[in-house]
Design brief:
The chain is of the alpha+beta class. The chain is 51% helix and 14% strand. The protein has eight helices and seven strands, in the order H-E-E-H-E-E-H-H-H-H-E-H-H-E-E.
């Protein structure tokens, strides 16, 4: 199972290239970003003032940068020979990457935006009140790339734990047995003989579901 851990790790890394999040307001898309875009502060914007569809003013997300580094470190270790230390590193980097991604994305939630808008509106100014009203109309959608990265890290974490606990070989063998049994051709059905019944009066034999002799009406047995 050890050699397969690199697959979910690689998927978690490549998922950063896919769309992660879209922020819309009143049904109109405002900004969107991939995982790498969020890490580097590059958001694709639909606003008229955006230049070439991108906003270069975003700040680098240090948490996501560190999360990427943890994924890469775990992926590199997965190419080494399996061992107790290697599995512990895979487990540690997977947990660290999950925690860092959570820290890097927790700010981009509607509840957090409303909380920040409420703090700004405490001064009672018209602009801050409008900010709070705009935040209430914001919708944040997390896309396939984000969930794929999370799923890849969770799968890699589970596989590394199985290898570390010594159950990896048994689980892999069980999965192979299940796949081989599903792929095997089912045995052809055996031909069942058709039951026949005999008329006690005339001695004729009949097959099928006939229960009485067609000639004399005697019950067949």
């Amino acid at each position: 199972m050890w050699k397969w851990i690199r697959i979910p790790k690689a998927i978690a890394l490549l998922a950063f290239l896919l769309p992660w999040v879209t922020v819309s307001c009143s049904g109109q898309e405002v900004v969107s970003a991939s995982g790498f875009g969020m890490a580097l502060g590059r958001f694709s914007s639909q606003l008229p003032m955006a230049t070439n569809g991108a906003s270069p003013s975003g700040s680098i997300n240090l948490w996501l940068i560190l999360g990427l580094a943890a994924i890469v470190a775990g992926l590199v270790v997965s190419f080494r020979a399996p061992g107790r230390r290697s599995t512990l590193i895979i487990i540690g980097t997977s947990v660290a990457a999950l925690a860092l991604i959570w820290l890097g994305t927790m700010r981009l939630t509607k509840a957090n935006l409303l909380r920040e808008a409420a703090k700004r509106s405490g001064s009672g100014s018209f602009e801050n009140t409008m900010d709070q009203a705009a935040a209430a109309m914001i919708r944040i959608d997390w896309h396939f790339g984000f969930w794929l990265s999370i799923a890849g890290l969770v799968v890699a974490l589970g596989m590394a734990w199985l290898v570390h606990s010594g159950r990896g070989a048994a689980v892999e063998a069980a999965l192979r047995d299940i796949l081989s049994s599903r792929g095997a051709n089912p045995a052809p059905p055996t031909d069942q003989p058709v039951p026949t019944l005999t008329c006690s009066a005339c001695g004729k034999r009949y097959s099928g579901e006939t229960r009485f002799c067609p000639d004399d009406g005697t019950a067949l047995s």
